[in-house]
Amino acid sequence: xxxxxxxxxxxxxxxxxxxxxxxxxxxxxxxxxxxxxxxxxxxxxxxxxxxxxxxxxxxxxxxxxxxxxxxxxxxxxxxxxxxxx
Length: 85
What we know:
It is built from two helices and three strands. The protein is 41% helix and 20% strand. The longest helix is centred in the N-terminal third of the chain and has 23 residues, at 14-36. The chain has one domain (2-84). 14% of the residues are buried. With 85 residues, the chain is of the alpha/beta class.
């Protein structure tokens, strides 16, 4: 089984990124904690940070998990919509 955990982008500009880097780090650690709690050794877990890397929309995965803060939920909805296609 392949599990993809995505931390959605929390800002839209470089200036805003400087002001949210500590907050964003907290969200990244949530994905890492979820990955560590996966009790099955046969589950391949990949963590992607939308802030710094491209999301692998076309990789074959069985389950996708998203994290986002409420004001930036529209970005998470965009990501979810792309995976539904």
